[in-house]
Amino acid sequence: MKGKISSDLIRGNTDTIVLGILRTTDSYGYEIYKKIIEKSEGEYELKEATLYSSFRRLEKEGCISSYWGDETQGGRRKYYKITSAGETLYERNKADWEFTKNIINKLL
Amino acid sequence: MKGKISSDLIRGNTDTIVLGILRTTDSYGYEIYKKIIEKSEGEYELKEATLYSSFRRLEKEGCISSYWGDETQGGRRKYYKITSAGETLYERNKADWEFTKNIINKLL
DNA sequence: TAATAGTACTTTGACAGACAAAGTACTTTG
DNA sequence: CAAAGTACTTTGTCTGTCAAAGTACTATTA
């Protein structure tokens, strides 16, 4: 994490990043947390508090749903699953990002 | 302004956009406001309140300086001028943006 | 076996940037 | 003369991010 990733530059992409991971497979908080570090090749760490507030937001909006895993031993895990509304939001957010990225490039 | 530019996606770029304009020539609030709309081809409007808080921030940090124009007639104009600290900040911010952009692309 | 590190989830409170809304004051145009 | 445009500024609100703290269990290792 030598990087210079400011929260302000990545802001607004959090939900989309989370949805992007859940699009592949159901997953739980800590795993998603790790996966983001891995996918960014160690350059970006989405803080747990931020991640959980993203979960709350997305669930309230009906973009993800959750269920407890059936771990017989080991710590309990809360799994999240993307809904069809979540898929739609992902597509729209990604398109918005591409659009905005181009505008910013024009402006800098 | 049909666009889908969310404030959260552009957040963190405001100061850099302003500095980018001042890098070419000294300018004043309302002109910069117009120029941003123009440069984005009508797709993005940086609100005046946001622009002025950017000015305040940048001036406090020594990245821009200001002086009143000598308009003999017409409304008074406060001109802003980029400093060498501002040039440096611009370069760094732009590099940070390029870097972050790549990470986000990996994550979406 | 006791301590430590790791897994896993959650809440609280603070901060900063963006902006809506409102206001002041002057000028140009219809 | 009214309305629209130019130009600057303040106040208060909202939202996303995150630091810090806490709970609880498991695996490692000294």
Which labels suit this protein?
homodimer, 108 residues, mainly alpha, Arc Repressor Mutant, subunit A, 3 strands, 56% helix, DNA-binding, WH_DNA-bd_sf (chains A, B), Transcription regulator PadR N-terminal domain-containing protein (chains A, B), Metal_resp_DNA-bind_regulator (chains A, B), WH-like_DNA-bd_sf (chains A, B)
What's the number of helices of chain A?
5
User: What portion of residues of chain A is helical?
Assistant: 55-70%
CATH superfamily of chain A: Winged helix-like DNA-binding domain superfamily/Winged helix DNA-binding domain
Give the largest chain-chain interface (CB within 8 Å).
A-B, 33 and 32 residues
CATH class of chain A: Mainly Alpha
Radius of gyration of chain A: 15 Å
Architecture blueprint of SSEs:
The structure is a homodimer of 108-residue chains.
Chain A: H1 7-10, H2 14-22, E1 27-28, H3 29-39, H4 48-60, E2 64-68, E3 78-82, H5 84-107
Antiparallel strand pairs in A: 1-3, 2-3
Helix pairs in contact in A: 2-5
The first copy, chain A, binds a DNA duplex (30 and 30 nucleotides) through helix 1, helix 3 and helix 4.
